[in-house]
Structures are given as structure tokens and as C-alpha cells.
Write a structure and sequence with these properties.
211 residues, 52% helix, Rossmann fold, alpha/beta, 2 domains, five-stranded parallel beta sheet, 5 strands
Length: 211
């Protein structure tokens, strides 16, 4: 009796940061508190200029754009706000931290690899690379450094190159369906992040974590 061929086993687990590993509230509440403004006011102007910043745009241009949306001149506080922003985005959420406490030893014991794939500015990359939690990761791929961002196929190719693995051996978690769909289109295994408990179940299902 013929049996269907089994898919290649997972050789690496790849995580997004914002909305996945990062604390769920992100940086907007902290930026709003630093400015003494309502969170909704900052949230309204925070995201639109972010894409250019995540692609390597200048720090000053991003915070000038945020300030313009708020009717404020933030030029004198840009570096302060950016440092706060980067620290908040690089802080693990409690659930994600507990998950990594399980994943890191399991991955190491099985000879697997770990990677980050994040749309993020250079300042956030610097904080992540300096953080203790990122040390077990074999590859840290950021959009600002690559000059290309998810869901562009080129940034997924950059992860494959960094790990030396084909997409079909990679398991990816991202909170944005469009980014997951782009990974699937390259042949990756990809799963929409719905919290650490759901991710844990998925990792058990593919054999990365023990049942």
C-alpha cells in the first residue's frame, strides 16, 4: 500500500517580534505617557510613517512625522522617544518569555535552530541584539538592515540564507496573516500567532516541543 510522502521535518523556528514575542501593549502607551497624551491620539499618528522607518528611514524623519500629526515639534526629544520606543518593542511579553524558556532548550537538544524575522528600525535591532533573550538565536533578520520588509519575498529569502536552510524546513510565527501568507507562498510552514498557548500547541504538534 502506497503512503503519502511525509513533509520534511522542521529544522528551525522563526519568530516575529512586534505582536508576537514583544509585550502585547507594544510601545505606543509608553510613548503616549512620555508625551502626556492620550494613547489613542498617539496611536492615530504612530503607524502611518512607520513603514518607511522600518525600511531604514532616518530616526528624525519618523519622529518629525509623528510630531506633525500631533501638532508638536518633537525634534528635541526624538532620540529620547526613540530609545524608549526601541526598549518597549524589545521587551518580551510574559507568555512569550515562558514559551522561549521551553523552546530554547528543546531546540538545542534536538539540534534545531532559532531565528527572528521582524519589520523594525535600526534602533530596535540594536536593543534586541543587546538583550539577553536574543543570545540563543542563530539569526536575527530586520527590515531596516535588509532594506526590505515583510511581506516582500526578499526578506524571507534573507532568513533562508542566514540559516542555510530551505523554506520548507522553517516554521514561522507572525501575528499578521499577510506575512504568514507570504511565508506559505515560499514554501515555509507558517502559523498566525494567537498567543503563546496556541503557539505551544502548534510546536507540540510538529514535534518541536514534547507532548
Amino acid at each position: 500500500m502506497l503512503t503519502a510522502p511525509q513533509p520534511p521535518s522542521v529544522a528551525a523556528v522563526v519568530f516575529d517580534i512586534g505582536g508576537v514575542l514583544a509585550a502585547p501593549e507594544g510601545a505606543v502607551p509608553s510613548v503616549a505617557a512620555a508625551l502626556g497624551l492620550p494613547v489613542e491620539d498617539v496611536d492615530r499618528v504612530y503607524w502611518h510613517p512607520r513603514d518607511a522607518y522600518d525600511l531604514g528611514g532616518p530616526l528624525a524623519e519618523y519622529w518629525d512625522a509623528v510630531g506633525a500629526g500631533l501638532g508638536l515639534d518633537l525634534s528635541a526629544r526624538a532620540e529620547e522617544l526613540d530609545a524608549l520606543d526601541a526598549r518597549q518593542w524589545a521587551t518580551l511579553g510574559t507568555g512569550a518569555a515562558h514559551l522561549l524558556d521551553e523552546v530554547v532548550p528543546a531546540v538545542r537538544a534536538a539540534g534545531l535552530r532559532l531565528a527572528v524575522l521582524s519589520n523594525a528600525p535600526a534602533s530596535m535591532e540594536g536593543v534586541v541584539r543587546a538583550s539577553a533573550w536574543s543570545r540563543p538565536f542563530d539569526a536575527l533578520v530586520f527590515s531596516a538592515a535588509e532594506g526590505v520588509a515583510k511581506p516582500d519575498p526578499a526578506i524571507y529569502a534573507a532568513v533562508e540564507w542566514a540559516l542555510g536552510l530551505p523554506g520548507e524546513r522553517l516554521l514561522f510565527f507572525d501575528d499578521r496573516p499577510v506575512n504568514v501568507e507570504a511565508a506559505l507562498a515560499r514554501g515555509w510552514r507558517a502559523h498566525v500567532w494567537r498567543g503563546a498557548d496556541d503557539a505551544r500547541q502548534h510546536l507540540v504538534g510538529v514535534g518541536v516541543l514534547p507532548a
